[in-house]
């Protein structure tokens, strides 16, 4: 058991799930605190030093979405949202409101830890990723200065739009980007929510970087939410 | 019919008598005129008057025309020389006769026509007022038998008979008794002895009405079923005139309309009640499922962690695994119930957007891969990007359910694949999930998409299912305006599930 020093707050009203999460965190050596209500969570956030928040969207006192908005007023701490399967809309809204990632119930301890690791890596690299000139995932490499993409060391021809999409994903590596966010970043504000163009753009990009677009290795689809570039 | 003929004969005798009386009277008047030495023209005019009177007092053209000819004959016989013969000395009389006959015929024809029109107008007015009275009363009816009772009261009143009405129930069967008008203020219920026979007779009726021994029966046709029969006593029915028949038909139509209106109002109420009940049940089911979901997630997470902490050879590993598997099964059941209640609620709003087929399939295959990593699923899709309007999350669920099914029924090393292609002719995206499993038993095929249908004749605990997965698939695909079917493969063993989605966005689905 290694000891970590990032303090994690678990905001979850169901005792069983809270215990399970806490146990998993203890196994990994994370210090943690718990909160059963949004009110409790907010007061702990103000008083204590907390680095990451696991937030259940269905809290008894008020909406988890409000918690995200409030926290984002003064903190950039990673927020991982925990939600039920049929809450895709809430998931996307939570991400658009500033949450970093989400987990769908039921989830395993392994999944939970993977998400926490990605979120913490971002915490340390804030500013760092954007400053880096070259990033790579597996055989896929992007050179921001030269605006070039390489696949298995060979230069890959991509259109400007495809490059922008890939660059956006690389800058947020490991994170889920909502369709709405990507549309805004790639096509600009006022483009609306027409997903058709993005779907076609993504399909084209995948045909260039993935061996089999139905079993993607680099860019994963999060149905109803958006896309994620894998982080290992 | 015999009585009708008899009354007809009495009437014609009456008319013939009228005709001859008129002629006789006018001849008498003519004698008087001649005695008073009035000119002959007066006599001719008086004869024409008699023709007019005859036409007025009888019916149809026949008597008027006959009267014209006879009047001319009588004038010739009695008042032209030589008297009391039909010959004439002065040939100019022939012209007088011709003109007289002609004038008389035209006059009588005109009179008859005026009279007929008047009669018709009177009949029509009577019909209209009778119908008005009926429909007016029918609007106040409280139920079907009330409608029947109002109808027979009105009809009995107009036709002066004791009409009756036998209502049919919602299933199209005659009721046990029928209502009959006894007198002006009283109605009785009489039992039907041969309702099956009546139903048979009415359903196979080729003519407008059925000739019974006591009643003539007119069926009351509703929009989509026979609503009842109207019974007119035989002795009244045989005497009915054309006009009365017509009136009766109109009245039956009004009754049918009123009954139909009542029935559909009742059906609306019933279906509204059913919807409320269904919604209540759905809400209850949903509330329970919702509450079950969170603790199940906890159980799954905890048992999985217990598995991680235990050596695989330890007995406790198997116990923890058992807990995990059962919780997992329960969890997917709960999720399925939640999906289904939401789908069947009718409140489901499809979040339809243009989605890439490869993405949805990719996610579904990945989900299955997570559950059974060693299973290989082949995917065949067109090379070009295929964008189909759909609610991606729901179609993913369809694919996951179908794949899950295939995985359950197919041995590990055998093929499972997903194929997608475009049917350009029908503008459809065609998805198929095929396997090399045991296939679908013939007995199961027709029921496979039914809710809570699980296959029979297998060892009880082999593959536990609750029969919701495919029902959900059907609901989702149907909500998208597509179709789904299951069949056994033509090329050897295995099952094939095919569903289609329209390639175009339809406005009504938005």
- Helical element count of chain A? 9
Pick out the low-confidence regions of chain A. Answer: none
User: By helix and strand content of chain A, what is the structural category?
Assistant: alpha/beta
Along the chain, the helix and strand elements of chain B come as HHHHHEEEHEEEHHHEHEEHEEHEE
Quaternary organisation: heterodimer
Largest sheet of chain A: 5 strands, parallel
Number of helices of chain B: 12
Strand percent estimate of chain B = 5-15%
Percent strand of chain A equals: 15-25%
**CATH T-level topology of the largest domain in chain A:** Rossmann fold
Mean pLDDT of chain B: 85
Note poorly predicted spans of chain B: 459-463
The greatest interface here is:
A-B, 37 and 39 residues
Biggest sheet, spatial arrangement of strands of chain A = 2-1-3-4-5
Q: Helix and strand succession of chain A?
A: EHEHEHEHEHHEEEEHEHHEE
What is the percent of helical residues of chain B? 55-70%
Query: What gross morphology of chain B would you assign?
Result: elongated
- Percentage of residues in helical conformation of chain A: 40-55%
